[in-house]
Design goal:
Length: 634
């Protein structure tokens, strides 16, 4: 990202080498329209033009919610005219945002906002985007923003391909996030049908409200749920907070048995729910009132947190996971509330703080439910069998005690089997984590081993996000990490990192490295390239071959480095060769291999960042050869 000050004007200069720019407030002139009645003809006139001033703030926002705000931006397009650029508003909760782009005949107008149907947007994305005409070198853009809720104005200029890549990654991760919430909510409903405990219904409703709240926060709700009903956007946040907080309050009261153990706290929480519903019916047009609501909504979090700590102190072990989970949630909820109130700047961390917190919160809440469920089943089984035995053998106390012990041990074994089957019958890494956590709670002596297994299941999820994070880092990385490269040392370091993996133990790697002179480049990017190619060779080996091999030939001099990787694996089918560097492509000959299909795509994108190339050559006897060329940075 970069932006330049040109000829004492407020301007952003677009260059061929860049893909996106964050527009700082220092490059934008602002004009407040208190009556919200100014037209584009008026604001572009000499009289109004002189009234545009820099805001002088680090964050642009609507100080007066009755006013309209005009933002003026000059764009100097120094790129190829074939490249398509767009302006993006990171804040998608704006009632109306109009973009006026200078043309030969005047100004073109595009109007978007959350008070218009989603289908009216020029780009089908949850944020607001406006295409920049590429026919001129200098473009003057006016943005008119009017919104009734507190809002900050974060603007970006992105090249269309960079925007597409960023959007795909964002939607993919959101899909994983909402899928995880949906799976756990469905699992909770199944537990409700099995055990008839209302706490599972409250938990499922809480997760559903949580998901709706997130979809209001990130804009996907308007895009996918009520695209043709924009009036819902006005009330979406307040309604979704209600859908989340009321089931949450009922859930923690049921889970911690607040009604039985602390009746006065339970009554206070019921009063809180009634008052919160009344507040939701009051128009929320005052910033001070909104701040009071924000603080009022902290009450159930604080009460749940203190109640969980007290319950754990009294010996209720599952409350520990509960307290940890909602501590994380409370922190993320505070960060998000401060962002909505424009107290802190909106960015990737603050905008998705609740998402990050929710993933951890769901993990810990699931652990607490699993622990509680185990205790509940044990107590139920023991109680039922004790009553039955006492009715049949009242006169034989000594024998009754012996029978009780036998039944308890038998039922505990059955419970172990139940949790084992439960962990293996429910698909997905989340269920694996839950099952292993339950087993860890039962087998205290071997707890360390179970945590290692939990870590292994979590690593499977982490592999997907790691690939996308690596891809995202490559997309955004600047070329400042230039250092001297020792290919012998670098390759040894990569092999050391791969040694613990099972695939590495089944392949023989031979090296032939000849390096003359000093070679300088980006070590992290070259590390990523070599690591992904070696991992690719390790995955696609032939089962019937006695010794899987990978021959690595490296020649580096003061001009360039040539890296050749030849393996005797399954090779690539002829019809698939043109797709091997495509995102998400996986060779279907070994479908059982797990992966995201991003390895070779990451290699290609990494090399493009350092002006390198990669080519593929089939091996006549089977296998593949990849040839990488990297220029020396002098």
């Amino acid at each position: 990202m970069s932006s330049l000050w040109t000829q004492a004007e407020y301007a952003v200069t677009l260059h061929n080498g860049d893909k996106q720019y964050q527009i700082s407030p220092q490059l934008i002139e602002q004009l407040e329209d208190p009556t919200a009645s100014f037209t584009i003809e008026q604001v572009t006139s000499p009289l109004f033009n002189s009234r545009f001033k820099a805001s002088g703030e680090s964050m642009l926002r609507n100080s007066n919610r009755e006013s309209a705000y005009w933002l003026k931006l000059t764009i100097l397009n120094k790129t190829d005219k074939s490249q398509q650029w767009l302006i993006e508003s990171f804040n998608f909760r704006i009632n109306e945002i109009s973009c006026y782009m200078q043309t030969n005949t005047g100004f073109s107008e595009v109007i978007e906002g959350d008070q218009y149907k989603f289908s009216q947007r020029s780009v089908g994305h949850k944020n607001f985007e406006f295409l920049i005409p590429n026919s001129k070198e200098q473009i003057i853009c006016y943005l008119r923003i009017r919104t009734k809720q507190p809002a900050s104005f974060e603007l970006y200029i992105r090249r269309f391909d960079a925007f597409t890549t960023y959007a795909i990654g964002e939607y993919f991760l959101l899909g994983i996030f909402y899928g995880t919430i949906g799976i756990v909510a469905l699992f909770s409903l199944l537990m409700l049908l099995s055990f008839r405990k209302i706490v599972f219904l409250y938990y499922s409703l809480f997760l559903t409200g949580f998901a709706v709240f997130f979809m209001c926060q990130d804009g996907t709700g308007f895009q996918y749920l009520w695209a043709n009903y924009p009036f819902i956007n006005t009330h979406s946040i307040s309604i979704s907070r209600l859908l989340m907080l009321i089931p949450y309050t009922l859930y923690f009261c049921a889970f911690l048995e607040i009604k039985q153990k602390s009746p006065w706290i339970w009554k206070a929480m019921m009063v809180w729910i009634v008052v919160r519903i009344v507040i939701a019916c009051i128009p929320q047009n005052n910033d001070q009132f909104l701040s009071l609501i924000m603080y009022y909504d902290y009450i159930p979090f604080i009460v749940a947190y203190l109640s969980a700590i007290y319950a754990y102190y009294k010996g209720f072990k599952p409350a520990l996971y509960f307290a940890i989970g909602f501590s994380v949630l409370l922190i993320s909820f505070i960060i998000n509330s401060l962002r909505v109130a424009c107290i802190v700047e909106s960015n990737i961390f603050t905008a998705y703080s609740l998402n990050f917190g929710a993933v951890l919160e769901i993990l810990f809440l699931s652990l607490s439910l699993g622990s509680w469920l185990k205790i509940m089943i044990q107590e139920k089984i023991v109680t039922e069998n004790i009553n039955k035995i006492l009715e049949e053998r009242v006169s034989e106390r000594t024998e009754v005690l012996q029978i009780q012990n036998e039944i308890i041990n038998e039922k505990v074994d059955e419970l172990d089997t139940l949790f084992y089957r439960l962990s293996h019958d429910i698909k997905g890494p989340i269920k694996s984590i839950l099952g292993l956590a339950n087993l860890g709670l039962i087998d205290v002596l071997d707890r360390e081993n179970y945590f290692k297994l939990i870590q292994g299941s979590a690593l499977k999820l982490d592999k997907i996000t790691t690939d996308f994070r690596e891809l995202s880092n490559i997309k955004k990385s600047d070329k400042e990490e230039i250092c001297e490269i020792d290919f012998e040392h670098l390759l040894n370091k990569i092999q050391t990192s791969l040694e613990p993996t099972n695939e590495y133990k089944t392949i023989v790697i031979s090296k032939d490295i000849h390096q003359t002179g000093v070679f300088r480049s980006h070590e992290h990017i070259i590390y990523t390239v070599i690591e992904n190619i070696i991992e690719n060779a390790m995955k696609y080996t032939k089962v019937q071959v006695e010794a899987s091999k990978l021959d690595i030939l490296i020649r580096a001099n003061e001009s360039k480095a040539i890296l050749q990787f030849t393996d005797n694996g399954i090779g690539i089918q002829k019809e698939n060769r043109e797709h091997i560097f495509t995102m998400f492509f996986r060779e279907h000959l070994k479908e059982e291999i797990s992966g995201t299909g991003l390895g070779l795509y990451i290699v290609k994108m990494s090399l493009e960042k350092i002006n390198g190339t990669i080519t593929y050559q089939p091996v006549s006897t089977g296998g593949t050869t990849f040839i990488v060329e990297i220029p020396n940075v002098i």
